[in-house]
Specification:
- This protein has twelve helices and twelve strands.
- It is α/β, with parallel strands linked by helices.
- It folds into two domains: 220 residues, Rossmann fold, CATH 3.40.50; 129 residues, 3-Layer(aba) Sandwich (Rossmann fold).
- A seven-stranded parallel sheet has the order 3-2-1-4-5-6-7, sandwiched between helices. A five-stranded parallel sheet has the order 10-9-8-11-12, sandwiched between helices.
- Strand 8, helix 7 and strand 9 form a beta-alpha-beta unit.
- Helix 1 crosses helix 12, helix 4 packs parallel to helix 5 and helix 5 crosses helix 6.
- The protein is globular.
- The mean pLDDT is 91.
Length: 370
């Protein structure tokens, strides 16, 4: 089978969409399919990737648009640039709109020779570029699946609501797809109901075969726990949890893998060496480090509408999980965890359904149905 995948996010990027793309590319190739990936190619890392996994990576092209740098200038100029950047994003999805033209330019030269085309958002202009290119005379592929990790028009986690005309753009590309894949059932209500027959739930896929975890008894000198991932103010905010930890006189070490230092900096002096903030590291290294913890912390703020990718990783490490819901927690449960009592731990999820072999097959099944 000949498979074309289009995605901005790909190895070595460290993001859920990058993991999605990278694991699918490797899995399809492993099964013997001919795989072509359109992305922003980096020769130094992607040429060795091509040789190792027997895939072909084509470059979407260099960016030709002006990027607004909001890190330089005085406070007033930075504020003005932030406003301009936000306005352009709201009005025309700038700078991501360039992807629509890049995808269009690459696809207009291709013929309908692919069995399966998977376009992966975000950003959504990738889907728009495919829709712009696909017509009755050149469908590019027998089956097009638009993969959506999040909703677009009805994304409740965006700070600003999309302007009304974007719903027509979403409906336009949706009409041209054969299928729209989403990672879990709860997202369906944030997509247009008129395309419900096209929605297919295909979860995030992971290759667990080559990922190692620490398999010896945990013997940390002090109770050591970790959180890995992003923070969101008023939602996935660690403030209440950190405030509670400040009140504890017992020894512990809390390791946070996160780039948003503004959330943890106020606690550097208050917690001292009890708080260790580290930058993100590659997923395989991260899982090994997390597997050496006494327990892991999950800040859950919207379980109905959020993908469980973090819980998949946490469950793989086989470490107890302390679940904090919507910034609220029971203090006695935290105290139990700090004393290595895990009777109230979160029940780990079954990770077999997220095995990349099963996930990849779900995409292939869509072609076999046609």
């Amino acid at each position: 089978m000949k498979i074309l995948i289009i995605s901005r996010s790909f190895y070595p990027m460290n993001s859920p969409r990058s993991f999605r793309t990278t694991e699918l590319v490797k899995e399809f190739s492993r099964k013997g399919h001919e795989v072509i990936l359109l992305t922003h190619k980096q020769d130094n890392v992607h040429i060795p990737f091509e040789d190792k996994y027997n895939v072909k990576i084509e470059d979407l092209g260099k960016s030709k648009i002006f990027k607004i740098d909001i890190t330089k200038g005085n406070k007033f100029s930075i504020l003005c640039k932030r406003l301009i950047k936000r306005m352009l994003l709201q009005l025309i999805e700038y700078p991501n709109i360039e992807l629509m033209f890049q995808v269009r330019n690459k696809l207009k030269a291709k013929e309908s020779i692919y069995d399966l085309l998977i376009s992966i958002a975000v950003p959504f202009p990738i889907h728009w570029g495919v829709a712009w290119s696909r017509n009755k005379n050149n469908r590019i592929a027998k089956v097009w699946v638009a993969d959506c990790g999040d909703p677009f028009y009805y994304n409740i986690h965006d700070s600003f609501k999309k302007f009304f005309y974007f719903k027509y753009i979403e409906k336009w590309y949706s009409r041209k797809t054969d299928y729209i894949s989403i990672p879990f059932e709860g997202l369906k209500k944030y997509f247009f109901k008129e395309f419900e027959s096209k929605y297919r739930v295909i979860p995030q896929g992971f290759n667990f075969d080559n990922t190692k975890i620490y398999d010896k008894p945990i013997k940390n000198d002090v109770v050591t726990f970790a959180y890995a991932g992003g923070f969101i103010k008023t939602a996935r905010d660690p403030k209440k949890f950190l405030d509670f930890l400040v009140t504890k006189n017992t020894p512990f070490k809390f390791i946070v893998y996160n780039k948003q230092k503004e959330f943890t900096e106020p606690y550097n002096d208050l917690l001292g060496d009890k708080l260790v903030v580290k930058d993100y590291i590659p997923r395989k290294e991260l899982l090994y480090e997390l597997s050496k913890m006494d327990f892991l912390v999950n800040l859950e703020y919207d379980p109905e509408n959020q993908s469980p990718s973090k819980l998949i990783d946490y469950s793989f490490t086989k470490r107890p999980i302390l679940l904090i819901k919507n910034n609220e927690f029971y203090e006695h449960v935290v105290d139990e965890f700090l004393s290595r009592n895990y009777k109230n731990k979160f029940e780990m999820i079954d990770i077999d359904q997220y095995n990349i072999e099963n996930v990849g097959q779900q995409f292939l099944n869509l072609v076999q149905k046609e």
